Amino acid sequence: MTTPDRRGGTGPGLPSWVIAPEGVLVLAALLLAPLAVLAPLLVGASVLLLAVGWRRIPWRRLDRMVLVGLAALVLWAVLSSRWSPQPGPSLRGALQLGGTLILGGLYFVFAQDLDRQGRRRVGLAFLADMGIALLALGFLVLRARFVTTSDYTLHQALAHFSRGAIVVTASVVPLAAVLFVRAGAKAVLAAVATVAVAIMLGSSGAAKMGLLALLAIAVAARVLPRAAAWVLAAALVATVIATPLLAARLPSPQRIADQWPSLSNSTHHRMTIWSFTGRNIAKKPMVGWGFDGSRSIPGADDEIRVVLHMESQDLPVTEPQLPLHPHNNMLQWWLELGLIGVAIITVVLLVALRRAATIPSRMGRSLLLAFAGTAFMVAQTSFGAWQVWWLAGLWMLAGLSAAFVRDLPAGEC
């Protein structure tokens, strides 16, 4: 029989929090950024949370409106698989989305249920995690810049660290919340500056744009605390409406190359993809082509020939019109789920923004809105909308962000 020790444990030298949800969250926080294998980490952490805390799942932390919205999204994704070009893979993808949302939701609510001491322990683990991640990212980026001998090989080398750069960028919000409570505003500024240097030395355009969005929204939310959430919500709705219309009206790929010769190969190809996506959204605007059906749309694999104008010479290239996914989450929502799916997702995001705007701390509101803006910017420039590692990272970092801002001073701080 075990007896409590002086530290509240259940055995010799073993504190009780180690075998509780708090211990799982501490372990997950230690592993989050350095590993950047977020899908297995979310699955493992959520399963462990269920194992040690299934009798006291914090149901009260569930937001019913968000829960209903996410359930509706999964149901619509499952239904849309019936008219997908490949129903079997689409159905499996929709069910995988449902599993990811369930596991992510569990992680999120357990993070919200931490008491102040639990948040301190998880926050300390997260600080250690981010320190390791920044050291590793900085070393790898600098090593690539000093070792590689050509621009092409440098770009290829730096591309390997893009996912890590995205994770570090999105981690700025929980990092800032923890550091402000523990060390004050100067420590936050130093950490943000360090992250900015590491990101700017890399090659991930999505990470750079995400960081700029984070800083801009954080400042705007501090200056205009009452209007920031409304402006962000209005921008979300306007972008939802305008994105497919603008994509469908992009010039032909060759005309883009002629008009903007300074575009990089990858940027030009993105515009080719977006143009093809926009035209196909218009063919099935209400219900879309079916969940995760982007890669199976007729003509997606067709390659077009374009002559790019690179440094006073012409470079003939071939570009597939839609490899894998549109590289823009909003276009992918429209393409695969149509107006009905986009409406569901938009409502869920608006509810989440409204919840963020009710945080008592002015700084907390700024940080959560900045996190939303960062995620939104990254989502519109890179990765597939349903990639499990991306969704897993959002769930875990959103959970930590929402937990840590609870310790920020209330009011106008």
Strand segment count:
2
Helix content: 55-70%
Task: Point out poorly predicted stretches.
Answer: 1-11
Taking the sheet with the most strands, its summary is: 2 strands, antiparallel
The main sheet orders its strands as 1-2
Strand content: under 5%
Multimeric state: single chain
Output the structural class: mainly alpha
The backbone outline, from C-alpha atoms, is globular
Count of helix runs: 16
Alpha carbon gap, first and last residue:
49 Å
- Rg from alpha-carbon coordinates: 22 Å
Query: Helices and strands, in N-to-C order?
Result: HHHHHHHHHHHHHEEHHH
Q: Residue-averaged pLDDT, rounded?
A: 86
Describe the protein's architecture and organization.
This protein has helices at residues 21-35, 38-53, 64-80, 87-112, 116-147, 151-159, 162-170, 172-183, 185-201, 205-223, 228-248, 253-259, 265-281, 329-356, 362-379, 388-404; strands spanning 303-310, 313-320. With 413 residues, it is mainly alpha-helical. A two-stranded antiparallel ribbon has the order 1-2. 43% of the residues are buried. It is built from 16 helices and 2 strands. Strand 1 and strand 2 form a beta hairpin.
